[in-house]
Design goal:
This protein has 233 residues and is an alpha/beta fold. It has nine helices and twelve strands. The strands form four sheets. The protein has a five-stranded parallel beta sheet, sandwiched between helices. Strands 8-9-10 form a three-stranded antiparallel beta sheet, with helices on one face. Bound molecules: calcium ion. The site of calcium ion (CA) has 5 residues, from strand 4.
């Protein structure tokens, strides 16, 4: 099988070099664009298998391209962003990015995320009818979320966890994935931190919807969100 083709859109030469080196050494084929304009041309010319997309680019925001790609189809997108752009992280996921890594990150960590993205993209999508209408509504700009129309009073981390689980719903997110998506890869937090926040998040969801238990614990693996799950299942 031909090696997967990755389009990297990143204007920082040092970061781009280290990503290209790591991905190519692992057998992936990488095309690099410094500008959104070049990336769009490249995607039209030869659609890649996945896109790694920086947020801050010289000719615009990577979030715009992310939105365009999501509207156009199912090309997997992994967003990169500078520290402190947490709102962009949530926004990126809301706009349809499949994953998100905050700078600084280790190239190995990025490689693992890209591999996981490619694996997921090669799996058949769940049938639309099995997804159903979500009882959750997220207001990203205001960092607010409602459950069955009732506002939830969540902390920033709880909000981040819920947004991350909703974005990947019906897929298991490992504690490591949740940790780096919500806390960042450079954080001192541990798996226990994720468990603690999941516990308080679960309690708040159950308070708002006592007949449901939306967060599913997968022993030794992580967590997922099932929007149809009734308590006791
Ligand atoms: Ca940049």
């Amino acid at each position: 099988m031909a090696s997967a083709r990755i389009l990297l859109v990143e204007d920082d030469p040092a970061i781009a070099r280290s990503i290209i080196y790591t991905l190519e050494r692992d057998g992936l084929s990488v095309t690099h664009s410094l500008l959104l304009r070049d990336a769009r041309a490249q995607i039209t010319r030869q659609p890649p298998d996945a896109v790694i997309l920086d947020v801050g680019l010289p000719d615009g925001s990577g979030l715009d391209l992310c939105r365009e790609l999501r509207a156009a189809g199912s090309l997997p997108v992994l967003m990169l962003s500078a520290q402190g752009e947490e709102i962009d992280r949530v926004l990126g996921l809301e706009l349809g990015a499949d994953d998100y890594v905050s700078k600084p990150f280790s190239p190995r960590e990025l490689l693992a995320r890209v591999r996981s993205l490619l694996r997921r993209a090669s799996m058949p999508a769940p049938a639309a009818s099995s997804i159903g209408k979500s009882p959750f509504e997220i207001d990203v700009a205001g960092q607010r979320v409602t459950l069955h129309g009732q506002p939830l009073n969540l902390t920033r981390r709880e909000f981040g966890l819920l947004a991350e689980l909703l974005r990947h719903r019906e897929r298991i997110r490992s504690r490591d994935e949740l940790l780096s998506a919500v806390w960042g890869t450079d954080s001192d937090s541990t798996d226990r931190t994720v468990d603690t926040h999941i516990k308080t998040l679960r309690a708040k969801l159950q308070e708002a919807a006592p007949e449901h238990d939306y967060i599913v614990t997968h022993r030794g693996m992580g967590y997922s969100l099932d929007i149809r799950r009734a308590k006791g299942n």
